């Protein structure tokens, strides 16, 4: 997973609207939560459909399994930046 994450970070960083990401790992367990902050849902969706992301997205799906991937969007009412 670390290799996949390391290859993903540069792709996210160059996408318009990307603010930052944080990886949280469970203590004593195998759970991981990755929090991505985007300026807007549209920016996130554009990244997920970009050519840059398409090859790694397939690798992530194979690694995680489709049922384990969950996206949730929270609107703060203000810009992140």
Give an overview of the whole structure.
The chain is of the alpha+beta class and 81 residues long. The protein has a single domain (2-68), classed as 2-Layer Sandwich (Alpha-Beta Plaits), CATH 3.30.70. 42% of the residues lie in helices and 19% in strands. The protein is built from 3 helices and 2 strands, in the order H-E-E-H-H. It has helices spanning 2-13, 41-48, 51-64, and strands at 18-25, 32-38. Strands 1-2 form a two-stranded antiparallel sheet. The radius of gyration is 13 Å and the shape is globular. The termini are far apart.
Give a quick account of the main beta sheet: strands, pairing sense, barrel closure.
2 strands, antiparallel
Query: Distance N terminus to C terminus?
Result: 29 Å
Q: Write down the CATH topology.
A: Alpha-Beta Plaits
Average pLDDT value? Answer: 80
Secondary-structure element order, N to C: HEEHH
- What fraction of the residues are assigned to beta strands by DSSP? 15-25%
CATH architecture: 2-Layer Sandwich
**Low-pLDDT ranges:** none
Global morphology? globular
Which strand order does the major sheet show? 1-2
Q: How many individual β-strands?
A: 2
Q: Gyration radius, to the nearest Å?
A: 13 Å
By helix and strand content, what is the structural category?
A: alpha+beta
Broad CATH class? Alpha Beta
Number of helices: 3
Number of domains: 1
Measured as a percent range, the helix fraction is: 40-55%
């Amino acid at each position: 997973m670390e290799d996949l994450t390391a290859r993903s970070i540069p792709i996210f960083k160059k996408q318009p609207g990307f603010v930052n990401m944080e990886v949280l790992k469970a203590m004593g367990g195998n759970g991981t939560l990755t929090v991505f902050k985007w300026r807007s849902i549209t920016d996130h969706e554009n990244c997920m459909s970009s050519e840059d992301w398409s090859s790694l997205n397939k690798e992530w799906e194979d690694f995680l399994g489709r049922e384990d991937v969950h996206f949730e969007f929270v609107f703060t009412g203000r810009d992140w930046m």
